[in-house]
Amino acid sequence: MPGKRIMVIGAGVSGLGAIKICLEEGLEPTCFEESNDIGGLWRYETEGGRPSVYKSVISNTSKEMTAYSDYPFPDHFPNYLHNSKIMEYLRMYVKHFHILKHIRFLVCSVRKHSDFSFTGQWDVVVQAEGKQESYVFDGIMVCSGLFTNPIMPLQEFPGITRFKGQYIHSWEYKSPEKFQGKKIIVIGIGNSGVDLAIELSHVAAQVFLSTRRGAWIWNRVWDNGMPLDTVLFTRFNSLLNKICPAFLTNRWAENKLNAHFNHDIYGLLPQHSHQATFGDDLPNRIISGRVLMKPNVTKFTETSAIFEDGTEENVDVVIFATGYTYSFPFLENNSTVLDIQHSMYKFVFPPALEKPTLAFIGILQPVGATIPTSELQSRWAARVFKGLNKLPSVNGMMAHIRKKKTEFEKTVQYVDYMDEIASEIAVKPNLFSLFLWDPKLALEIFLGPCTPYQYRLQGPGKWAGAREAILTQRERIIKPLRTRTLIRDQLPISPNLLLYELGNSLFLM
Hints:
Blueprint: E1 5-9, H1 13-24, E2 28-33, H2 63-66, H3 83-96, E3 103-105, E4 107-112, H4 116-119, E5 122-128, E6 131-137, E7 139-142, E8 149-150, E9 166-169, E10 183-187, H5 191-200, E11 206-210, E12 216-218, H6 228-232, H7 235-243, H8 246-260, E13 276-278, H9 282-287, E14 291-294, E15 297-300, E16 304-307, E17 312-314, E18 317-320, E19 324-325, E20 358-360, H10 370-385, H11 394-403, H12 414-424, H13 431-437, H14 439-447, H15 466-471, H16 473-478, H17 495-508
Parallel strand pairs: 1-2, 1-7, 2-3, 7-20, 9-18, 10-11, 10-18, 11-14, 12-13
Antiparallel strand pairs: 4-5, 5-6, 8-19, 15-16, 16-17
Helix pairs in contact: 1-10, 10-12, 13-14
């Protein structure tokens, strides 16, 4: 008997994982991608009307935490990946699991079938080579991503329309060359805003980084030179977070980050939030004067920006790093399909649909990697589509949404959310059982990084290579760092030689 026909919208990191999961579950996926290639946001393009990474972008999550759960990155790949390496990995994944033949590159629209309340089916119309084609699908996975509709809050900045310089959204930025010698203000202190301020400070006459709230600046490289997420995102730390009062956890984090540099002195101390941003080189650019921190802009003149503290700076370019909002233009405007506030059950299922045959994959942004989060969501959605997992009643889902409502404003913890979805399909690792039967593996799962492979140890989709992938993950972290072979002398080094070398070093300074 043929499997249910599933439509996957988008061939980015979430969509590719969704296709593979559908194949794994015996479903028949067809992916529709409006561009001409896979990769979504990660595919760098010099021009074009769609959001994509700029040329120098490097991932904020490390490779072991970012991998698909049954396909680790090659061990020689660096821990933090340039966008070209991400694309290389995605093409390897697509080839390995024979995914490309299930992707069609065209535009589509999606509407409920006339008997949706009975069948849960969807009518899909696609535009292919000037012709329209119609299809009926049993389920829809929306994998078009978070970064689809740039926010340009021009109404909040009086005078911007009279500004004679250039103003753009960060998604239009691709490389720094054309900004040589300019005075630039970057508005927004998220990851993109800080990245752009750092990069532009190498070529611009001056960069101003404007923020109304400040941020805590985190480094990709953490204690002992290890990737940040492999040290912090562990089950042990997740347990500590549940036990310790929030103020103690926050104080520890603040003290840790202030030990690197004092956020108050550097003009970065958040006022009312714990906004976290990656910016490895930001303190270096601030201390050298290449980036100047500024408060919020109150208005623009034809040639300058005036800030809340009354200061005024002449600027040539304004870059709005002000984020994105969700946009699903292919979906019918129906409150049961997509409500205004995007209140999904566990960030996946619209609760008011008569049939649970529509899933939003990857619209949640936890403090962690997108690939494993969206892949686990797809595994759950596929089993709901097949009828193997049931959702609660509408009232039950709405009660859960209300209970979790603050998570839309607050940070969603990576390990907690992954475990929550994993529990739906019985793939959360059983630590108690593992400690009895495989204590070595259990210790690595509890104390080591919570890598995606943990969710392939048991239950549906179990992968025979999961145990080995977990026990060798530290080797894959260390291998790309050891690119220089150290030859250690067998004889002790003479103290006189040490003094000589020290003297030469001081002289050269």
